[in-house]
Specification:
The structure holds 2 protein chains of 2 kinds.
Chain A lengths: L11 H7 L3 H9 L4 H21 L14 H23 L8 H11 L1 H14 L7 H27 L3 H48 L1
Chain B lengths: L1 H25 L7 E3 L5 E3 L4 E7 L6 E4 L3 H11 L6 E3 L8 E5 L4 E6 L4 E6 L7 E3 L1 E4 L4 E4 L3 E8 L10 E7 L4 E6 L4 E5 L15 E6 L5 E5 L6 E4 L5 E5 L8 H12 L2 H5 L11 E4 L5 E4 L10 E4 L6 H4 L13 E3 L2 E3 L3 E6 L5 E5 L4 E5 L5 E5 L13 E7 L2 E6 L4 E7 L1 H14 L7 H10 L4 H14 L2 H8 L4 H18 L1 H34 L1
Parallel strand pairs in B: 4-9
Antiparallel strand pairs in B: 1-2, 3-31, 4-5, 6-7, 7-8, 8-9, 10-11, 12-13, 13-14, 14-15, 16-17, 17-18, 18-19, 20-21, 21-22, 23-24, 25-26, 26-27, 27-28, 29-30, 30-31
Helix pairs in contact in B: 6-7, 7-8, 8-9, 8-10, 9-10
Classes of the chains: A mainly alpha, B alpha+beta.
Chain lengths: 212, 533
């Protein structure tokens, strides 16, 4: 651990990416969690996903570009991220996790950085490579995902002060918690919608009564 | 006042212009032409074919029996009633097959429920010949048909006389046989159910369709067996089964396979055996390839096959096994699933493939490489649309004949100008004359900018002329393979043209990195020194 480390907030994600294991320890020691930086990274996550849809070269673009809909992309990135953070926080506070919401949020966002960087490389490469050279693209794609996964595991382990197996189990349960959260969210939405329709039909009924 | 007059003139001319637009719309074909784009989405398209004539049999007037007068006397004696030489053809009854004899331009119609074969010519001008009694020299009796379903005519060059050079094979459905007759109606061969060691005795032998190859092997399509077509040697003996479909890989089939590996043999035997779909119709081309179609709402395996004489599907080897024939997607409406059910195929001398869709009454026209050309036809009560049961498709030149069993009619389609241009372009394209095909393809795009294949044709032309950038433009979102080829050339050319600049940029980058590293080192040293001091 480097106790003399003194980095500006925006440099931390990159430092952490280069030091997957001790980086998070430093981060925790320094209490350098920064929600603003995390939000910028989440925004980048969203923007890069959009770019990936529209700017990936024709040879590698599998998205249906006839209709461009931003809502699913928003769900896939921003909403997914926050469900992860909330799910992880609500689960790990129950299982002796030490991480605060802020810590989980920052660490999870910082862990995304390698994925985002490789994704940019992939988008650029997909415009200059041929189909026979797709292996390079696959390599970068997997590299980014692998690196980010390692960072995510290491980060969650550090903020909660867990052992590795416990981290993995917690992450697995977090995914389950996310499913439950999303299910309840959809349920809530549809219920509200029905309440709204009910209220609106009463309103129209009344309007008909009084207008005659 | 002159102003009023002016307004009136404008109004009248506007109305006239509008009505002119309307009339051109009314002179349309009764169906909407469409095609598929690269995404597999249906897009409106110009019609490649329009309905020309609808023949119900009444147009044929009086038909003549081909039998001689002495034969007719014997037939009358056999039947116990007067069989006249000429007879009113009258309406067809559930016709189920058509055959066009390319050499003599004869059109054979299998008039199923009337138990007869009608012979006319491709323009329906020749006096109709009725074939319903066939002389069997072995029994010295006259054979009749019972619910015939299919016909095939074969010409033999080395025959002893002209009569024997034309051999007609009739799939006689309810008589459980295929009748082989010469042009004069003399039976030369009867193909019946093969012996029990080859053919399951429980299974019926009701020939649905029949084709014959150049060597005289007879392929009989039977709907009750899933082992493929029953193949007879020219002498009438059973030789083998030909070209069975593969089993559709459903979840059920996979589960059965899994259980069979675990359970013992007796328990496994109790499972329902997964059997392939039987194919429902076939056609043969001049080179001896046999094309089969399988009529199924849900199955996608082997819907259309092109088989070599060994019974192998050659389209799979070309990588077309994933092709979807007929409509791209089935749709669900009011409790009924609507998907294509291909029940007949026609292959003409250019290799153009036409598939007849029983479910929607549509015809799908493909090139010999299975690229979609046109979709036409449809179901309905209007003239030119089909009833619920289309049965056969044939073509001669650029005229397409479709047999409708329910409406008891034969509908002919003729190719439009647009269809001609597409076919011209496609013919040049498949010969590899991409540059010559450029002009017709451009014409196609002027008439219908949705026509997907035109972009591929033009892209290919630009590619072969070395205009890689234009080729990329044409291939973009139209063909990945084409774009890949064009881009490869374009990239190579780009690098070659700008090689010097690349070298300079790389050198500058390397120098800059070295200098930057030195500078950083220098500053670091300075800072360290400063810190110490």
């Amino acid at each position: 651990m480097r106790f003399d480390l003194d980095l500006p907030a925006w440099k931390w994600p990159f430092y952490v990416a280069r030091h997957p294991f001790e980086g998070f320890e430093d981060l925790r020691w320094k209490k350098a969690y920064n929600t603003k930086v995390a939000m910028v990274i989440v925004l980048c996550f969203f923007i890069i996903t959009v770019c990936q849809q529209v700017m990936t070269g024709f040879l590698f673009n599998t998205s249906y570009v006839k209709v461009f809909n931003i809502v699913p992309l928003l769900v896939q990135t921003v909403i997914l991220f926050f469900t992860w953070v909330i799910g992880n926080w609500s689960l790990c506070t129950l299982f002796n996790g030490e991480g605060s919401m802020k810590a989980i949020c920052s660490v999870s966002a910082y862990a995304l950085v390698p994925y985002l960087i490789t994704q940019i490389v992939v988008i650029i490469a997909s415009n200059v490579l041929l189909r026979s050279e797709a292996a390079f693209i696959m390599f970068f794609q997997y590299l980014g995902i692998l690196w980010s996964t390692v960072l995510m595991i290491s980060g969650i382990k550090t903020v909660h002060q867990y052992t590795v197996p416990k981290t993995l189990i917690a992450m697995l349960f977090t995914v389950a918690a996310m499913v439950v959260i999303l299910f309840l969210l959809v349920l809530l939405l549809s219920l509200f919608q029905q309440v709204y329709v009910f209220g609106f039909s009463i309103y129209t009924e009344l309007m008909y009564r009084f207008s005659i | 006042m002159p102003k009023m007059k002016k307004i009136a003139t404008y109004a009248v001319s506007a109305v006239l212009a509008f009505s002119a637009l309307c009339t051109s719309a009314f002179a349309d074909q009764p169906y909407d032409g469409y095609n598929y784009d690269w995404w597999g989405d249906p897009v409106p398209s110009q019609a490649g074919y329009v309905v020309d004539r609808v023949i119900t049999g009444l147009e044929f007037g009086t038909g003549t029996r081909y039998n001689t007068d002495t034969q007719l006397e014997e037939i009358s004696a056999q039947e116990g009633e007067e069989i006249p030489k000429t007879q009113e053809v009258s309406a067809l009854s559930e016709p189920s097959d058509l055959f066009i004899d390319e050499e003599t331009k004869d059109l054979y119609v299998v008039d199923t429920k009337n138990d007869r074969i009608l012979v006319t010519d491709v323009n329906f001008e020749k006096p109709t010949v009725i074939m319903d009694y066939f002389y069997n020299p072995e029994t010295k009796e006259y054979e009749t048909l019972n619910n015939p379903h299919g016909i095939f005519v074969r010409h033999v060059d080395d025959a002893e006389n002209e009569n024997e050079s034309k051999m007609i094979y009739i799939a006689d459905y309810d008589n459980n046989r295929v009748l082989g007759v010469y042009a004069d109606g003399t039976v030369f061969q009867i193909f019946t159910k093969p012996p029990a060691e080859f053919y399951d005795e429980e299974t019926t032998f009701q020939p649905n369709k029949v084709v014959v190859d150049v060597a005289g092997n007879v392929y009989v399509n039977i709907l009750s067996t899933t082992q493929g077509a029953v193949m007879f040697a020219p002498d009438g003996s059973f030789s083998s089964y030909f070209g069975a479909n593969r089993v559709e890989q459903t979840a059920q089939a996979l589960a059965n396979k899994f259980w069979k590996t675990i359970l013992d043999r007796e328990a496994a035997a109790s499972f329902i055996q997964a059997v392939p779909m039987e194919f429902s119709n076939f056609d043969i081309d001049d080179e001896g390839f046999i094309y089969t179609v399988t009529e199924s709402k849900s199955a996608t395996t082997d819907v259309f096959k092109k088989m070599n004489p060994a019974g192998e599907n050659v389209l799979i080897n070309l990588g077309y096994s994933d092709y979807i024939y007929g409509d791209m997607a089935s749709y669900y409406y009011l409790g009924v699933t609507y998907g294509s059910q291909i029940n007949d195929v026609d292959v003409d001398e250019n290799g153009t493939i036409r598939l007849l869709d029983y479910a929607n009454g549509r015809i799908f026209e493909y090139t010999n490489e299975c690229d979609l050309l046109f979709i036409y036809g449809g179901k309905g009560n209007q003239k030119g649309l089909f009833g619920d049961k289309v049965t056969a498709i044939e073509s001669y030149g650029d005229v397409v004949y479709v047999c409708d069993s329910l409406k008891a009619s034969i509908t002919t389609f003729k190719r439009t100008e647009f269809g001609d241009i597409v076919h011209e372009a496609m013919a040049l394209y498949s010969e590899g004359k991409y540059e010559e095909a450029r002009e017709p393809w451009n014409e196609v795009l002027t008439r219908d900018s949705n026509y997907w294949f035109a972009y591929i044709g033009l892209g290919q032309a630009e590619l072969s002329m070395g205009n890689y950038e234009q080729a990329m433009d044409y291939f973009y979102r139209n063909s990945r393979g084409g774009y890949n080829r064009a881009f490869k050339q374009y990239r190579m050319q780009f690098i070659r043209d700008n090689f010097n600049i690349f070298i300079v940029i790389i050198l500058v980058a390397i120098i800059a990195l070295i200098v930057l590293g030195k500078v950083r080192k220098h500053f670091k040293k300075k800072r360290k020194a400063g810190g110490k001091g």
